[in-house]
Amino acid sequence: MMREDNDIQDCGKKEALSDIVGTRQIRREKRHLGATLNSLLGPRVLVYVSCALSIWGDRMWHFALSVFLIELYGRNLLLTAVFGLVVAGSVLVFGVLIGDWIDRKPRNKVAHVSLFLQNSSVIACCVVLMLVFSYKSDIEGIWQGWLMVACYVAVIIFADLANLASTALTITIQRDWIVVITRDNRSQLAGVNAMIRRMDQIINIFAPLSVGQVMTWASNVIGCGFILGWNLVSLLVEFLFLSRVYQLVPQLAAKPRRCTGNSFLKRQLELISSQGEIHSCSTIDEFANMPKTLEGSEDQPSPLEVQQDPLPLGLRKMQRLVRTCCDGWKTYYRQTVFLAGLGLAFLYTTVLGFDCITTGYAYTQGIGGSLLSLLMAISAFSGLVGTILFTRLRRSYGLVHTGLISSCLHIGCLLLCVFSVFAPGSPFDLGIFSLPLSRNSSLSNEMLKENQAQVSPFERNINQPILPGRSTIHWTNNTVLMDGTQESSQPESYISIILLFSGVILARIGLWSFDLTVTQLLQENIADSERGTVNGVQCSMNYLMDLIHFILVILAPAPQQFGLLVFISIIFVITGHTMYFVYARRYRSQNLHTQKTPKRDREAFLT
Predict the structure, then answer these.
(1) Can you give the pTM of this predicted structure?
(2) Which residues are CB-neighbours of 76 under 8 A, at least 6 positions away?
């Protein structure tokens, strides 16, 4: 009987022990599952998803819009050129104002307004395009065609607003929020920057392909509807995710007051003290470091300014905008990383990239659309390698030295493009610049005939359609390629074009690594209160240098002149990297000075 009782007790203990072990295991699994869910729903992952949705929508829209503008204006590039000039000019002018607005307003308001304005502008533009494509013949007959002109203007305005809002959202999230989320941890910041750039490279392949297939197999109207639906869903998801990130990271709500000069601070301090609102700020520094709690206080002019300024209200606002732009450029100039940012901007003045210029030149040299698409995919993979190289170099040699190594790699690979100008198969010929004034000479006639025989397929009579029928159009990431009647003649040798694209593809490794280096330098060395303004000016500089490169192409559009554009591009690239070398040298000398100063102070103290 005693044994049975003991057995029963032992069995009860074992069951209780097994229940305890099972309960602990269940708790451990729940804790592990909760940690996994917290990591998946953490701020960093939510930012990744928001950036991926935004980048995918931007890539689809930029690609589709170029095709829509060509189709809209009777297969002519006029609207595309006008849109490019409007976009470049608007960012060049309003980039500083956008950055100033980002610095003055709360972070959540800036993100929500930029997100709503970007997606709503794309949606409105898609609606206008769907109406035009559906009822184009009817619209052309109203008001003697002026209604169609109004539609052109509306499309360009909406698309430009979307681009400005996208610029503001990019500065807000990718230049400001991630710095606060990583809490100034340089390793984590480098990882986040590299991850976003990898997503950008991958999306740049598949996003244009997706919308291009819809437009090819369906119609332009269906393509507009597809982009419209994407932006509606993206707007809702990004809004929810960014709001959640703002709640999870309390540091995003704290934004320091912007310092705009001692005279401004003295005036504001006098006004506040005279009104009896604050008595604890005895110095300018204390006032400048106060947390910003009153929204819009910097937008309104002070009562003294209104009484002393006799100018009308409109002129005062214009004067304030001009002063804001001048102060923004001055703020950009006095940054310690000014030369690094300016050097990055100089890299935008180049034809040695996978844009419409280089792909169009390749098409004139007998490279087909399918091969160009393959080369673009290889170029994107090269960019991914550059992001991986950046993280490893930064971990091993530091951020500044990573930029030096990336610069040397970038320039070294681009030398292949210089060699391609003199390689067999290159159409480079400077004789096209020196045609004799007398067109009656036999030499002049021979040179004219030779130039006409070697003319680009894009240089045709302006009355002829630039693009052929819809069935012969192939969409790639950055350009529209054609088959059929526009097929170019085969070159004597492919050595030149092979060297050109080998240099361009390999140079992407150093280019993206250098771009990430300068991006992180701007993030780390700019004060929180000036981060928006400086990055706004940086965007303006990038667009300015990009605009210069298009002007150079307009001045030298023939394939025989492409070699000259290569030389000019190399000069700008070397100039940009030289600016970074100067910055790196100054950085090194400053570090040596800061390292030697404590030692001298210690020796003086001991003596």
Answers:
(1) 0.76
(2) 70, 466
